[in-house]
Amino acid sequence: MRQSLAIAAVAVGGAFGSVLRYLISTWFLQRFGPGFPWATFAINVSGSFLIGFVLQLALSRAGFSPYMRVFLATGILGGYTTFSSYSFEAYSLGVQGSYVRAVAYALGSVVAGVVAAYAGVVIARLSSPT
Q1: 62, 129 in Cβ contact below 8 A?
Q2: How many domains does the chain divide into?
Q3: 21, exposed or middle or buried, with CB in 10 Å at 0-12, 13-18, 19+?
Q4: Which end of the chain, C or N, has fewer beta carbons within 10 A?
């Protein structure tokens, strides 16, 4: 894989993923307000599902281009998901005294993310010809 092409694939994918994250975050904030970080939760769980799905397809399909893998997984999904926002939002809930919400958000995000990644792998395996 040529590094310059891989970097271009990641850059273009990252731009798409970041814009998508912004649009989804704005939509969630308008619909649900600032009480709980639902946008980051939904983005990180859906991103976990999608990365499990994409990487399983990349492993199981011979024709899956390495450039497509870095475009989708590192670029789009790397720009789309956001561990830094998740961390700060969990911290902010705790500072505000919402300790139960902070713990529920922190643990719930990790558990839901792992389950979603597993579901993505399973669905990709089911959709792949054997």
Answers
A1: no
A2: 1
A3: buried
A4: C
Whether pLDDT at 129 is above 80:
no
Q: Residue 92's domain spans which residues?
A: 3-127
Do residues 105 and 37 make contact, with C-beta atoms less than 8 angstroms apart?
A: yes
Q: What is the CA 3 to chain-centroid distance, rounded?
A: 24
62-76: per-residue pLDDT in tens? 788 999 999 999 999
Q: For the whole model, what pTM was predicted? A: 0.86
> At a CB cut-off of 8 Å and minimum separation 6, what does 116 contact?
45, 46, 48, 49, 52
Local structure of residue 97 (DSSP, 8 states): T
The owner of tokens 């529920």 is 104
Who's near 73: CB < 8 A, 6+ residues apart?
51, 54, 55, 58
Q: How many CB atoms lie within 10 A of CB 127?
A: 12
Residues 43-64: b if buried by 16+ CB within 10 A, e if exposed? bbbbbbbbbbbbbbbbeeeeee
What's the Rg (C-alpha) of the chain?
16
